[in-house]
Amino acid sequence: MLITDKRIDGGKAFDWGRTSEDYAKYRDIYPEIFYRKITDLGLCVSGQKVLDIGTGTGVIPRNLYRFGAQWTGTDISPEQIAQAERLSQEAGMNICFFAVPTEELGFPPASFDVITACQCFWYFDHAKVMPMLRKFLQPGGRLLILYMAWLPFEDEIASASEEIVLRYSPGWTGAGETVHPIDIPEVAYEYFILEHHEEYRLEVPFTRESWHGRMKACRGVGASLSGEQLAQWEREHWNMLTGRAPEQFEIRHYAAIAVLKRL
User: Fold this and answer.
1) Within 10 Å of residue 188's Cβ, how many Cβ atoms?
2) Tens-of-pLDDT digits for all 263 residues of the chain?
3) How far is CA 232 from CA 158, 165, 216, 229, in A?
4) Non-local CB neighbours of 247 within 8 Å, separated by 6+ positions
């Protein structure tokens, strides 16, 4: 599904379906502390029903499944959902996935104890989505917003990779990250109260292949470049890695978490 949003990448169209196979292979990269921060808050654990919106290939429900919650995942991309279903079935997990835009969800009121949104919150029409999410939550339920990004001003390889992406996608808004709290739109406070937020640095391990795949699976590359542009990007990025990066290395990232409680 081709998506165009003037808030993102200067309105350049992208389609997650084009990169779903790479996404499934290379973007399941959150370290254990990322998940422990969630469960230490008593969220996404046994006895809870959890909805993961913008689930992509189901990374969040699949990795938190072991903590016992009952999971549902939704995403706008049918190709992403197909990968999520494949991976969860291969792992013997009972997770319900649906290909549907978040703005069109139709769950009954009070269906969930927790709603999670990881790497996707900025894509939504917040004026429409926030009252819906409140309705889907039980009284006192939580909306958990999650994010992780590399830090190009603190990591040489990440910076070099960004420079190459920007040559092919100059309007890419995924570049230039620094550590900061998750941005909560003002409309959210009509329906939720910010209960907790935290930001922390971490080092994420990669090989040349896995970092190359991670970058290829980003919005500014695999989801938006033409076939010829993508082939050129791959050659340039791989040449940079073989010239500057060891076979195994770590990339400096930060992660952020925001917990909103239903009013």
Assistant:
1) 22
2) 889 989 999 999 999 999 999 999 999 999 999 999 999 999 999 999 999 999 999 999 999 999 999 999 999 999 999 999 999 999 999 999 999 999 999 999 999 999 999 999 999 999 999 999 999 999 999 999 999 999 999 999 999 999 999 999 999 999 999 999 999 999 999 999 999 999 999 999 999 999 999 999 999 999 999 999 999 999 999 999 999 999 999 999 999 999 999 99
3) 19, 11, 12, 5
4) 207, 208
For the whole model, what pTM was predicted? Answer: 0.97
- Dihedral sign of CA atoms 210, 13, 60, 159 in order: positive
Structural tokens at position 76: 């706008």
Q: How far apart are the first and last CA of the chain?
A: 34
DSSP 208-231: HHHHHHHHHTSTTTTTTS-HHHHH
Cα distance between residue 14 and residue 219, in whole Å: 7
